[in-house]
Amino acid sequence: MKDTDEKVITALEPAGGRQKRLTVHLDGEPAMEIRKDVAKAIALTVGQSVRLEHLKEQVREETLNRARDRAFLMLSVRNRSEREIVDRLRQACYEPDIIEEVVEILRRLDYLNDRSFAEEWLKSRMDGRKMGRRGVAWELRRKGVQADIVEEVTSACDDETERATALEAARRRWPALAGDDPRAARRRLAGFLQRRGFSWDTIHGVLEDICPPGDAES
Known about the structure:
Layout: E1 6-15, E2 18-26, E3 29-35, H1 36-41, E4 49-51, H2 52-77, H3 82-91, H4 96-108, H5 114-129, H6 133-142, H7 147-155, H8 159-177, H9 182-195, H10 200-210, H11 213-217
Antiparallel strand pairs: 1-2, 1-4, 2-3
Helix pairs in contact: 2-4, 3-4, 5-6, 5-7, 6-7, 8-9, 8-10, 9-10
């Protein structure tokens, strides 16, 4: 029997060890695997007559559409790195070729651009979380942004901008520490700024403004 001939779906069974997938049996023989959500979307049922090649095309198109829509939904919440999109689609059990095609679609639409993502992430983390360049760089590397892009983007932030960000973070934090022993408060503030990803040079300058050594010794 040729693939162009119609066959009958005789069973839709869970694929071994893969909760989100089904094995499609045609004329009593396993023919292909398919995602459960895709099977439901294209209304596959036992007893239905299909042509295998047509079914494969239909399944791939629906799977690609669902993976693409999932990526669009993620991007509607906030910008994402390419690595984040790939990881989330892998977690959703999409096949590598589907993920690769979705990424290519997003690149063509300029919805996926790691440099733009890194620039936006740097601004949002410095403005919102009051983080330093080192801290933001660490986050970007964790999100899979290439090291050269991370370096270029974070280096574009000048020392004065970082110092102003650190000073604002310190001023917000200082009232909660001011009742402590002055030396202990100074150490805790330094640790706080270090955890936010500021360089030691920046931290030292901020400490001089917020709690000069003379105050800590008095």
